[in-house]
Amino acid sequence: MNFREKYQILQEIGRGTYSVVYLVNNKLTDTIAVAKRAREPEYSQNLRGEAEILKQLEISQGVVEFIETIPDERCNFPKGNRAIILKYAGQQCLARFLKKHNDKVDSDINPRFNQRELSFYAAQLIAGISHLHAHGYIHGDLKPGNIIRGDHVLRKGDHIRIIDFSGCRHFFEVRNCYGTPGYQAPEQKHGVTEFNTDYYGIGITLNALAQGRVRSIECGDVKITTRNDITDKFKEGLYLTMHDNSDLRQKGLHLLL
Question: What is the DSSP string of the chain?
C-alpha cells in the first residue's frame, strides 16, 4: 500500500528546505496524522536519513512520535521514495504563536510566557533532548520554529514536541549542523556541533519565550530577559545554558526546572 492509497491530504501545514508537511487522514482508521514528503526528488535521501533516526527513538515526552514510513510514488522521484508519517501533535509551532500575537495590535493574548509555563516547557525540552542524546544524537537546530504545541489557542501550557530532525546527526558523525541564524550556538559558526550545542538551543528558546518574540540574525547579541516576575534562579539557568563556554551549559539545566 502506498501513500495515496492509505492517506488523504487535508491541508499543507508547513514547508521547509527539504520537505513539505501535510495534515492527513488515515483512510483505514479515520484518524488524523502528519505526513512529511520530500519537496524535490533530490531531497528524498534527506527524509530517509531523518526516518532512520526517528525509528530509533522510542516514544518519549518532548519528541514527536514516529508512526511509519510508506512508499510515496511520484513522477520523477527515485524508486524507493518514502513519506514519513508522524503522530499529530498540533499545527502551531511556538515561533508562529509568538509572531501571530506580536503582529496583532489588538491581541488579547500576552505572547510572553510566565514562570510556570517556562518551567513546564523547560522540563519537556530537557526530557526530549536528553532522550535524543541517550541514543547518541544531536538535534543541532533547536528553536521555537521546531517545537510544536497543542491546538488550544488560549492555553500556553499545552504539551510540546520537538520536531524536524533533518539536521540531526549522530555524535560520531563528522558532519556539522549549522543551525539557524539567530539561534546558532557560538561553536556552530566555527563548524563545531556537540551535545552542549542543544543545551544552548534550550536556553535561547526559553529566553525567546520569556521575551515574547522570535529572534532573527538581525537581533544582534543575545540579552537575557530582565523581567522581575522571572526568578533569579531561572535567569541564571538561561545565562549558563547560553554561555559561550559550552562546558558550563549543562550546569544551567537544573536551574530551569
Answer: --HHHHEEEEEEEEE-SSEEEEEEEETTTTEEEEEEEESSGGGHHHHHHHHHHHHHS-S-TTBPPEEEEEE---TTSPTT-EEEEEE---SEEHHHHHHHHHH-TT-SS--S--HHHHHHHHHHHHHHHHHHHHTTEE----SGGGEEE-S-TT-S-S-EEE---TT-EETT--------TTT--GGGGGT---HHHHHHHHHHHHHHHHHTS---GGG-S------TTS-HHHHHHHHHHT-SSGGGHHHHHGGG-
Cell numbers representing residue 165 in the block: 530532525
Note the pLDDT of residue 178.
85
Q: What is the C-alpha to C-alpha distance for residues 154 and 157, in angstroms, rounded to an integer?
A: 9
Return d(Cα 200, Cα 137) in angstroms, integer: 15
Task: Sort residue 225 into left (φ over 0), alpha (ψ -120 to 50) or beta.
Answer: beta
β-bridge pairing 92-93 and 169-170: unpaired
Q: Using one digit for the tens of pLDDT, what is the confidence trace for 49-83?
A: 999 999 999 888 789 999 999 999 999 999 999 99
What pLDDT score does 159 carry?
A: 86
Q: Which residues contact 112 (CB under 8 A, 6 or more apart)?
A: 209, 210, 211, 212, 227
Amino acid at residue number 140: G
pLDDT given for residue 36 in this prediction = 98
Mean local confidence (pLDDT), 7-32: 96
Q: For 168-200, how does the pLDDT look when each residue is reduced to its tens digit (9 = 90+)? A: 999 988 677 889 988 999 999 999 999 999 999
